[in-house]
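Figure S4 source data
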Amino acid sequence: MGRIEEKLSSLKKEKKKALVFFLTAGYPKLDSTEELALALAQGGADILEIGMPFSDPLADGPAIQESSNIAIKNGITLQSILDTVCAIRAKSNIPMVLMGYLNPILRFGEKDFFPMAARAGVDGIILPELPFEETPRYKSLIDGSGLSQILLVTPTTSPERIRSIDSASNGFLYCVSTTGVTGSEHRANISNYLQIVRKNAPKNPLLVGFGISTPQDAASIAMAADGVIIGSALIRQISSGIIPDDLTKWVQEFRHAIDTPC
């Protein structure tokens, strides 16, 4: 059992929900990520998703696109991301997942990237644009490196396909709450949506992301899910120039909200 599974299992025993944050590597400055990641962990984040910036994203909304563009201008690379993960891992045992697009990995060399990521301290990988039918091509490399391949479902995913995706996913199932990009406020009916997913996905915990902006959003969705993922809202806080101490306090508001739902 890896760090992701251990954390989610522990939270389930404590009857708590997972709090996950997405952080764009190399934003706002090339060397910002380690300090921001540790501030998130200090505030009560259970898992970190570290974004691998790419110039042509498909699933990212304006806030994350802009952060990625700045990170690329700052000179971010996959190697520097792995170096940053290694530095975070030396100071924290928080589970870390890399989320991004396949092109940079192919350019780096997938046979090298996945084992190097695992050695750096990465626990899982999310490739949102990779069609489910193509995931077997990388399964042996990802599994062989000891990483969890975390897959996504959406409000339009059929029950039959949910069952297949759940069976192939490890760590957790990423439940996209909208039919749009990150940061979109047009969520599906979460309760009905997750009832369908849970009925057809017995293997993995269900973590919901996209469009969760406030502690109140998080608390409401966490009542039906096993955890929540906050991305664009965090990027907007970082864009505003929030300092790490205040970022920790901001995370604590989400922690308190999902631990004490109305």
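Figure S5 source data
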Amino acid sequence: MRRELTTSILAVVVFTVLLGLLYPFAVWGIGQVAFPGKADGSQIHMDGRVIGSTLIGQDFSKHPEYFQSRPSATGYSTSATYFANRGPNQASTVAFYRTELARYVARERRYVPGLTAAQVPVDAVTTSASGVDPHISTANALIQAHRIAAVRQLPLDRVHRLIDDHTDGRFAGLLGEPGVNVVELNIALDKEAPAT
């Protein structure tokens, strides 16, 4: 019995050191060498401080000079990511989508005359699975481009070029849909034509 107990304790110690210390340290080290920016969370640095991440959506709703992210169930909180678990027949689902749709149309119709609810891309009114997805569809970005061009006094084709430059393609050329990273696009906008 003593031999089995000693073997068990030794196995726990060896595997704790191997899998609890050495393996995580090796993976961390490889990540730091091979992918230093991504391994640290794809952080955005400005004026010597971290202001966010290109992987996390942010709330730009109070700033019409910026592209707007998808709605977020978490308020873009990085400490609690989840989606709104609404069923298709819930009254709260209908109310949420109607509110988001009315907000979007009211904000964009001034710059896109004749914009109807039927023309609004679905991602403009729905939350993502994580609630903090930084991407919107190209259709959504192209509608918002009219507002950005007007507010920042930029030619529309220049805004379209920025959208093209910040559109991610399909994964491996096959999976998913192209998406525009709103955080990166807004940073590029500030470099191209600083907001006044």
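Helices lie at 2-34, 36-39, 91-109, 138-152, 156-165, 182-192. The chain has a mean pLDDT of 83.
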